[in-house]
Design a protein that fits this description.
The complex is a heterodimer.
Chain A (H helix, E strand, L loop, with lengths): L6 H10 L3 H21 L4 H21 L9 H18 L8 H8 L4 H27 L2 H11 L4 H7 L4 H27 L19
Helix pairs in contact in A: 1-2, 2-3, 2-6, 3-4, 6-9, 7-9, 8-9
Chain B lengths: L14 H13 L15 E2 L2 E9 L3 E8 L6 E8 L6 H16 L8 E6 L5 E6 L3 E3 H7 L4 H20 L2 E2 L8 E4 L4 E3 L6 E2 L25 H4 L6 H17 L11 H10 L5 H4 L8 H11 L2 H9 L11 H13 L10 H11 L4 H6 L1 H33 L2 H13 L8 H24 L4 H18 L1 H11 L4 H13 L7 H6 L2 H14 L2 H11 L6 H13 L3 H14 L4 H13 L3 H13 L10 H11 L3 H10 L2 H4 L1 H13 L3 H14 L5 H17 L2 H12 L9 H17 L5 H6 L10 H17 L3
Antiparallel strand pairs in B: 1-2, 2-3, 3-4, 4-6, 5-6, 7-9, 8-11, 9-10
The chains are: A mainly alpha, B alpha+beta.
Chain lengths: 213, 779
C-alpha cells in the first residue's frame, strides 16, 4: 500500500474518475477511519456502512466541482466535514421508522459540537496508528513483531526476555525501535495527507533497523 | 520531544501510555478484507469445494459438490473471507440467510443449507446455477423480441416475489440474472439486499450493505444520489436490463466509461429510446434494423422509458405493474403507462411517418385521407380487435363457465360427462367464445395470446365432438405447447387427468402453462387449473387466470383465497356482472357485509340482477345470515326460490343452521332439496345423510329408545317431519352408494363435513338404527 502517495495527488486521481485503483487505495486507507468514527458516534454497523457509502459518493461528486487545496485547510478537517454531513444526511432521510431508535437518538442528539470533533480527532489518531502499524508489521522481522505483540498484550519485559532467550535490554530496544519507526511513519503519513513534503524525525534511538526493507 | 514528532500520539509519554493508545487503535479496527485461504478440495460438512466461482467484498463463492454418499449435487457455497467475520458481517450473512430462506421461488436461487467452517465462520449452501447472464443467453440463442419479453416477465415475477416478502434486491443486473440451459431464469446474489418496511421503503436497521464501491451502470438515480430506496429502485434496474435485452446496446453512450461519468449520466442524462438506440447497432443489416425499430417503437419504448424514469413518482410504482405492461403489450392490450392520448399519438404518428406539414397544407386532402387511414389502421382496428378479444375472454370466465366448475366440484360432473342439457349449454358458450376470438384475430392476426386461447377453445370442443380433430390439433401445437398436448392426449386416451411432475410444470413455458390451464378450465378439471395457474399467477394479474382461480376457490369454500383474485379480475373487467357478483360472494363469505352489499348494488346497476346464474340472491341471504337476520334470510330463500335452483344456497343455509345447533332446520331444507332434485346431487345427499346420522347419534338414549318403540308399534310420532326425514334418508342412503366416488376437490371443499363431528362408530350404529327405523316408520 503506497501510504506515501500525497493526498492531493490521490485526490487528483480520484477527480479523473476512471481510476478504479485510486478508489481502491483510498477506500483501503480511509474506510476504517470513517466507519470507526461512525461507531464512536454510536451508529449501528449497518448504518456505518451506509454512511460510508454516502461519504464515498459525496466525495466523488464533490471532487468534480472542488479541488482540495492543502493551503486552505487540513485534509482531515475536510473529510470530517464530509463524514458529518453524510451522517446528518443519512438520518435526515424521511421515515426513520425502520431504524433502531437508539442509533437515531445517538446520531442526532447534539451533545455539543466539540464532542463530535473530539471523537473525530481521536479516531484520526487511531487511524494513523493503524496505518503505521500495518507498515511496521510488513517490514520488521517476525521475531520482533512477535515480541512486540506480546508486549502490547501486557506481558512483562522479564517474562518475554525469558521466553525469547534474550535480555531485558534487547526487549526494550525492540520496543524503542518500533516506537521510533511508528512516530516516523505517522509523521510521514500526516505530511502526505496534508500535501506537505515528507520529512523524517530523528529517532530517539538512532540504531539501525536491519530487517526493514 | 522532537519538533516534528506528531502531536496527540503520546510518543512523548511513558511507554505504557502510547502502547495503550496503540492497543486501543488496533482493537477498534473495523473489519478489513483478508486473503481467502480456502482451497479446492477442502471439505465443509458434507461438501467438497471444487473451484472458486466468485469473490465479493466480504466473501467468496465456491462451486462445491455434496459427496457424502447420500446424494450427489453441485451447490454454490458462500463463505466469509477470513478476517471479515466480525459481528457485523456475520449478522449481515445471517440476514442474507433469512432473506433467502423466506424466498422460495422457482426463479430465485434456493438456499439449501448453512453451517460453520472449522474456524467457526458461517457459510451458506445455495443452489448452483449453471447459466448465462440473461442478455448473453438471449443473444446466444437468437431469441426474438417476444421470447425476450416472456423471459423478462418471469424475472419480474421473481423480483416481485421478493418485494412481496419485503426484500429489495438493489443489485439487479444481467450478471445476477442467469438463465439455465433449459431457459429458466434465476435471480442470484441477495448479498446486498435490503429488508423493507411494510410501506416498501428500506429499513436500515436491518440493512445489509455492500462493502464494495458502487457499480453504477444498473444503479438508479436515487441510489447514486444516496437517497432512500424503494421498490422503484429495482424497477429502474430491471428497466436497464430490459433496455439491454431489447436494444442490445448499453443505456448510455459514454466517452470514458468512468464511474463518475456513468453516475452523472444516470442522474441527469435522458437515455435514447430503445427504438432509436438500435440504429447504432452495426451488427444488423439495414432491413433487420428497420424491422427491429418498428417492433420497439411505441409500446416497448414507452415501457422501457417509464421504468427508467429519473423521477420515481413517474416510474412504475411496482415491478408487478412493469410486468403487467409487458404482458399487456404481448396480449395486444393498451398499456397502463400509455403517456399520451389519441390525438398526441396521431400527431406523433404522422411525425414519425414523416408526413411533412408543408405537404399537409399543399396536398391537404391527401394528407387528411392518409391520416384518417392511419388513425383507422392504428387505433380503430386495434380497438375492434380488443373489443372482440375482451368479449371472448368475458365469455370464457362468464357465469356458464363458473357454473360448470361448481358442477364439477359439487356434483362431480365435468362438462363433457354431464347430462346432455348441461353439455349443450357448455358447447354454446364455447361457440360464442370461438366466434369472438375469430373476429379478434381477423383484426389482430399477430396476437399470439389470443391465437393460443382460440386453439384451446377448439381443443375443448374437439374433445367432445370430434376426437380426430383433437389429434390433428395436437400435432400442430406440439412444438409450441408440448405439455398441453401431452395433457390433452393423455386425457383422451385414459379418460383421466394426467399427473405432471413438479419439474415438468416448473420448466414449462408460461404460454404452455397458460394454455394447459385454460384447456383444463374448459374441460372442467379444476385440479389442473390450480396446478398450472397458481404457478403462472404467482405474480401476474391475468384476468382470466385470476377470475377462474377465484371462482374455483369460491367453489372450494375458501373465500379468503378467492377474494384477492376476484378483486384483480373485477378491476380488469369492471363491467362483468358475474365477476362483480362473485366478488360480492367472496366478500360476504369473508364477513365483509358492507363491501358485499355495495358490490351487489353495482350488479343491480349493471342490470343483471335477475340472471339466475348470478349468485345475487344467495349473497343477499349470506349477508342477512351474517347480520343475524335468520328469519329474513329464510324468507328470501323461500321467496327467491333459492332452494329450487341453487344447491349452494341450500348447503350454505343448512351449514348455518347446523352451526347454530338447529339440526332440525338444517335437515328440513336439505330434505326439501333432495325431494325436488333427487338425481346427482352428491354433495347435498352426503351432507343430509351425515347430518341425519349425527343428529341421531347425538340424541339422548332415552329419546332414541322411545322413537324406536313408537316405530316398532307403528305408532304416530309427535314430530310430523320425522317420517318424511326418515323416508328421504332411506332413499338417499341407497342412492348415495350408487354415486361415483366424490370429486377430490369436493372432499377438500368439505361439503359433507359436519360442524360438530361425531365418531365413526356412532355414525355407523346410527346408520343401522335409522335404516331400521325408516323400515318401520309409518308412511
Amino acid at each position: 500500500m503506497s501510504h506515501d502517495t500525497t493526498q492531493p495527488s490521490l485526490l487528483r486521481k480520484l477527480r479523473k474518475g476512471a481510476d478504479a485503483q485510486a478508489w481502491r487505495e483510498f477506500e483501503a486507507k480511509y474506510r476504517n477511519l470513517v466507519v470507526g468514527y461512525c461507531r464512536r458516534r454510536g451508529l449501528q454497523p449497518a448504518d456505518c456502512d451506509d454512511v460510508q457509502q454516502l461519504v464515498w459518493m459525496n466525495l466523488a461528486k464533490g471532487l468534480q466541482n472542488f479541488e482540495y487545496d492543502p493551503r486552505r485547510g487540513r485534509f482531515r478537517d475536510y473529510l470530517r466535514r464530509v463524514v458529518r454531513a453524510a451522517i446528518a444526511r443519512h438520518f435526515s432521510r424521511p421515515n426513520p421508522a425502520g431504524r433502531a431508535l437508539d442509533t437515531t437518538m445517538l446520531a442526532i442528539t447534539p451533545n455539543g459540537t466539540d464532542e463530535f470533533d473530539e471523537a473525530w480527532e481521536a479516531e484520526w489518531v487511531d487511524h494513523h496508528y493503524r496505518l503505521a502499524m500495518q507498515t511496521v508489521r510488513s517490514t520488521f522481522d517476525p521475531r520482533s513483531i512477535a515480541i512486540f505483540d506480546r508486549l502490547l498484550a501486557g506481558e512483562p519485559v522479564a517474562t518475554l526476555a525469558t521466553a525469547f532467550a534474550t535480555t531485558d535490554q534487547a526487549i526494550h530496544k525492540i520496543k524503542q525501535r518500533i516506537r521510533n519507526r511508528l512516530a516516523q511513519l505517522i509523521d510521514r503519513q500526516i505530511r502526505a495527507e496534508d500535501g506537505r513534503a515528507a520529512g523524517g524525525i530523528p529517532p530517539r534511538d538512532p540504531g539501525s533497523i536491519p530487517s526493514e526493507s | 520531544m522532537s519538533p516534528t514528532m506528531p502531536e496527540g500520539f503520546e510518543f512523548d509519554q511513558p511507554d505504557e501510555l502510547w502502547l495503550a493508545r496503540l492497543r486501543h487503535a488496533l482493537h477498534s479496527e473495523a473489519p478489513r478484507p483478508a486473503a481467502d485461504d480456502f482451497r479446492a478440495g477442502a471439505r465443509l460438512g458434507p461438501y467438497a469445494l471444487v473451484r472458486r466461482i466468485g469473490a465479493g467484498g466480504m466473501g467468496t463463492v465456491w462451486l462445491a459438490r455434496r459427496a457424502d454418499g447420500v446424494f450427489e449435487r453441485d451447490v454454490a457455497i458462500k463463505l466469509i473471507k477470513r478476517g471479515m467475520d466480525t459481528d457485523a458481517v456475520v449478522r449481515r450473512f445471517h440476514t442474507e440467510r433469512h432473506i433467502l430462506a423466506a424466498l422460495v421461488n422457482p426463479n430465485i436461487a434456493r438456499l439449501y443449507d448453512g453451517g460453520s467452517t472449522p474456524e467457526g465462520g458461517p457459510y451458506l449452501v445455495m443452489e448452483y446455477v449453471d447459466g448465462l447472464p440473461i442478455v448473453d443467453y438471449c443473444e446466444e440463442n437468437a431469441y426474438d423480441v417476444e421470447q425476450r419479453l416472456h423471459l423478462f416477465r418471469t424475472v419480474c415475477h421473481a423480483v416481485h416475489h421478493a418485494h412481496r416478502h419485503l426484500v429489495l434486491h438493489r443489485d439487479l443486473k444481467p450478471n445476477n440474472i442467469l438463465v439455465t440451459s433449459n431457459g429458466i431464469p434465476k435471480l442470484l446474489d441477495f448479498g446486498i439486499a435490503k429488508i423493507l418496511n411494510e410501506d416498501g421503503a428500506d429499513a436500515s436497521a436491518h440493512a445489509t450493505t455492500d462493502l464494495r464501491p458502487l457499480t453504477p451502470r444498473y444503479a438508479s438515480p436515487e441510489q447514486v444520489r444516496g437517497e432512500r430506496l424503494t421498490t422503484a429502485t429495482d424497477v429502474y434496474s430491471l428497466g436497464v436490463v430490459l433496455y439491454e435485452l431489447l436494444a442490445a446496446t448499453p443505456l448510455y453512450q459514454l466517452e470514458s466509461g468512468s464511474h463518475l461519468e456513468i453516475e452523472r449520466a444516470v442522474v441527469a442524462q435522458v437515455p435514447t429510446r430503445p427504438s432509436v438506440a438500435v440504429s447504432r447497432r452495426g451488427d444488423l443489416s439495414p432491413l433487420q434494423r428497420r424491422r427491429l425499430q418498428r417492433r420497439l417503437r411505441g409500446d416497448l419504448d414507452t415501457i422501457v422509458m417509464t421504468a427508467l424514469h429519473k423521477d420515481t413518482t413517474h416510474r412504475y410504482p411496482s415491478v408487478e405493474q412493469l410486468a403487467e405492461d409487458v404482458r399487456r403489450h404481448l396480449a395486444g392490450l393498451p398499456l397502463l403507462a400509455r403517456p399520451a392520448g389519441l390525438w398526441t399519438r396521431t400527431i406523433s404518428l404522422i411525425r414519425r411517418r414523416r408526413v411533412p406539414l408543408a405537404a399537409a397544407s399543399a396536398g391537404g386532402l391527401l394528407a387528411l385521407l392518409l391520416a384518417t387511414a392511419l388513425v383507422v389502421y392504428w387505433f380503430i382496428v386495434p380497438a375492434w380487435a380488443q373489443n372482440h378479444l375482451r368479449q371472448a375472454r368475458l365469455t370464457i370466465v362468464g357465469p356458464r363457465a363458473n357454473q360448470a366448475m361448481y358442477n364439477v366440484i359439487f356434483f362431480n360432473a365435468a362438462p363433457f360427462r354431464a347430462p346432455a342439457r348441461q353439455r349443450n349449454t357448455t358447447a354454446e358458450y364455447l361457440k360464442t367464445a370461438l366466434a369472438a376470438y375469430d373476429a379478434a384475430l381477423r383484426y389482430a392476426p399477430g396476437n399470439t395470446a389470443a391465437r393460443r386461447e382460440r386453439e384451446m377453445v377448439l381443443l375443448a370442443c374437439a374433445f367432445r365432438d370430434d376426437p380426430s380433430q383433437l389429434t390433428e390439433l395436437t400435432t400442430t401445437l406440439r412444438p409450441h405447447l408440448p405439455l398441453t398436448c401431452a395433457y390433452a392426449e393423455e386425457w383422451q386416451a385414459n379418460g383421466q387427468r394426467p399427473l405432471f411432475t413438479h419439474a415438468e410444470l416448473e420448466t414449462a413455458s408460461p404460454s404452455d402453462l397458460r394454455s394447459m390451464g385454460l384447456l383444463a378450465l374448459l374441460w372442467g378439471d379444476p385440479e389442473t387449473v390450480i396446478d398450472t395457474w397458481t404457478r403462472l399467477s404467482i405474480e401476474t394479474a391475468d384476468p382470466i387466470v385470476e377470475a377462474s382461480l377465484g371462482n374455483i376457490y369460491l367453489a372450494l369454500d375458501e373465500p379468503a383465497l378467492a377474494y384477492p383474485r376476484l378483486l384483480s379480475a373485477h378491476r380488469a373487467y369492471p363491467e362483468a356482472a358475474n365477476l362483480t357478483a362473485y366478488l360480492a360472494d367472496a366478500a360476504a363469505r369473508c364477513g365483509d357485509i358492507e363491501q358485499a352489499t355495495q358490490l351487489l348494488a353495482d350488479v343491480e346497476r349493471q342490470g343483471n340482477i335477475s340472471d339466475n346464474a348470478l349468485p345475487v340472491e344467495r349473497v343477499r341471504m349470506l349477508c342477512l345470515l351474517s347480520q343475524g337476520r335468520v328469519d329474513d334470510a329464510v324468507e328470501l330463500y323461500d321467496t327467491a326460490r333459492l332452494g329450487n335452483y341453487n344447491p349452494v344456497a341450500t348447503a350454505q343455509l343448512a351449514a348455518y343452521f347446523e352451526r347454530s345447533g338447529d339440526d332440525h332446520s338444517a335437515l328440513r331444507i336439505l330434505a326439501d332439496r333432495l325431494q325436488a332434485h333427487a338425481a346427482r346431487e352428491q354433495a347435498t345427499a352426503a351432507k343430509f345423510v351425515r347430518l341425519m346420522e349425527a343428529w341421531w347419534a347425538r340424541m339422548a338414549p332415552i329419546d332414541r329408545k322411545r322413537l324406536q318403540e313408537l316405530a316398532a308399534a307403528s305408532a304416530p310420532v309427535t314430530d310430523p317431519e320425522l317420517p318424511r326425514l326418515l323416508d328421504v334418508y332411506a332413499r338417499t342412503r341407497r342412492q348415495l352408494e350408487k354415486y361415483p366416488k366424490p370429486h377430490p376437490l369436493g372432499l377438500r371443499a368439505g361439503w359433507d363435513k359436519l360442524a360438530y363431528p361425531v365418531s365413526a362408530a356412532a355414525l355407523a350404529s346410527a346408520r343401522d338404527e335409522l335404516s331400521a327405523l325408516a323400515g318401520h316408520s309409518p308412511p
